[in-house]
## 1
Amino acid sequence: MPIIKFFDTTLRDGEQSPGVNLNKEEKLQIAKQLERYGMDRIEAGFPASSKGDFEAVQAIAQNIKKSTVLGLARTVKSDIDAVYEAVKDAAKPAIHVFIATSPIHMKYKLKKSPEEVVETAVSMVRYAKEKFNHVEWSAEDATRSDIAFLAEIIEKVIDAGATVINLPDTVGYATPEDYGSMFRYIKENVPNIDKVELSCHCHNDLGLAAANTLSAIQNGVTQVEGAINGIGERAGNVALEEVALALHVRSDYFPYASSLKFDETKRTSDLVSKLTGMYVQANKAIVGRNAFSHESGIHQDGVLKHAETYEIITPALVGVTPNTLFLGKHSGRHAFKDKVNTFGIELTEAELKEAFEQFKQLTDHKKEVTDDDIYAIVMEIKTDSSNIDKYELIQFGVSYDTQDTPSATVVLKAPNGVNVEATEYGSGSVEALYKTINSLIDEEITLTDYQLNSVGGGKDALAEAHVQIKINEQINNGRGTAQDVLQASANALIQAINRYYVQKKATIKQLVHE
Ligand code: KIV
Ligand code: ZN
């Protein structure tokens, strides 16, 4: 069966989702999970866009061994140099260079004539080829480009050294028939097309991304680009897990194979959702919470009699396992470490010590500690790389009474090591708590999003809070997990505040060095 290569852009196009702001450690954890998932190619970021992105791409390149690691570049020498510096240590380094080819983009955005766009694309692909064997070239807004012009520029960039040609539906405008026939035309009208791989890249503005991707595959594309859970600009990119499962479940119709390990699907989706703060809708195909539940009596009865009556994908296929009971009060450090290893997460000694202590505290309150609980604890420790002097929550109390105005008292240890304390009032417990924390820091915080979820089920489930805040026009996310909802909420806000200061410090350093 022909192989379809999977190219993940969760860390680049996906990270362009409004409000998503991953730190280096979080990006690295996602990249490692993508590698475990069997992803052929990982677009790790856009190194020229910021120092933080450069460092994250570099860390990913140095740690990922099986997947190809790419960085994105505009057709500008300095962008190409930045990608080279960031990925040169990768086992399989590669570059993705793009320029827009539609009349509207060339005229208004690039302010270049079509001839100038061809010349820029060719010279920059040639420049990239001096540094990389694997050069992917994208025609941004390909689906709104003149098809004869597209064929002409593709032929020239292939001669200049491109090895993969990607034709994105940048604004999610194409229909499956449009998109498929564009690839058919290119295959039939570009004389050197057999020298390269053809790739598709679909955005989901009209909800057609998966259908368009499948149509591209049926018309000769051998690489699929997309993001986990379909995150990305505006309505997002195609959800890779949906394409992978469509190919697998309907292999009678789509006779193509991939190297993805389907039983890592759910874990990959959970990790991306947790770290980006972009929760997956319950009815989302393949990975939504309800994707495998059967509500109506008729369906339940059918599934009990014979699962395939209503189930075309088994939960086990995508790694949805019963939430196995794990260790309890008397479990030792060794068993705990073994469990963490099964998640594929490596902890340093210090991280393991902290995770084990938190696990032990949890067993004091929670009888049945599950895999999900352990995973939540470990990821929280693993991805908090803000090892700067930061705000620390020392103590807090909230008073709530239906007859009285809620109030909160908070003690924080400030970055200078001094404890600060305040009391404020609010119209609810969380508002009082957040107002009090805000009164203890120098900046004005606007809360732009607040979500509370439970980790697993049961009345003693861990609470997981996610916040998005804006300080001085800078958006930061924070996550907090705790047994108590207010504690989780406080932890999430403090993490977001600390991230603001980490970024501020990095920006000041960058300005000083520029
Ligand atoms: O959607 C798009 O056109 C892109 C390009 C940068 C490849 O993401
Ligand atoms: Zn895109």
## 2
Amino acid sequence: MENLRSMLDESVAAIRRVWNGSPRVGIVLGTGLQSLADRCQVDVALPYTEIPYMPRSTAPSHRGRLLLGTWCGVPVAVMQGRVHYYEGYSMQQVTYGIRLLKALGVHTVVLTNAAGALNPLFRRGDIMLIADHINLMGDSPLIGPNDDTLGDRFPDMSDAYSAALRQQIRTVALEQRILLREGVLVAVHGPALETRAEYRFLRAIGADAVGMSTVPEVIAAVHSKLRVVGFSLLTDECFPDALQPVSAAEIIATAQESAPTLQRLLEAVLPKIECQ
Ligand code: HPA
């Protein structure tokens, strides 16, 4: 990944050949959540294979294309599918899409994922607004030489998930009568799900949900001076003393079941975060 800047220039040029819009908000759709963009007015759907340097998604249920268009009146670039660290990609590759959204001109990114519930008050199918995170992936996209034109060497993480935006989103959720949890996401590298002892540990260190994505993207987004909103769809209950076996297929099915509620929330939120 030497010379990220020139790689991004090439990727942007490939997109600009087919689409000339000015996206304001970038959105990343996670596991089981690919249909959230069903009502997006898509001008161009560009497979990642047609964007130079964009890594290919190999995870189940990830479409692997960039949707360019308008959603609820907001010019958007939507990553329909992401790549994960557990697929064998480097942290730089995992966060390339975020760098690209920034290079396309977005000011805010909305990240979505499927995650396991650790907080015993939360339930399978709930939506959690991410308030903060713990990075337990053992790696960071910022390790290595820092390109000062992209961001600071030591980015401040004290308001990584914009408190102002979260306040607005809580209000929208109340108006829409959508139950919205809020909490801390811990990121692990996976791909094995956690043992009971690991879930107990993750809860003890202060996490409300656990997932295998999003956190590296948020680190890169904050480094890029993007505003961040994150939603976790809680697909399984990771309560160590009552743990049930769960499969990837069940995780995807639960995310798909609750996707319409997250879609309704997102569509109510989008116009509000655009005009900030
Ligand atoms: N652990 C990690 N990632 C996950 C889980 C989990 O239990 N559920 C959905 N994504």
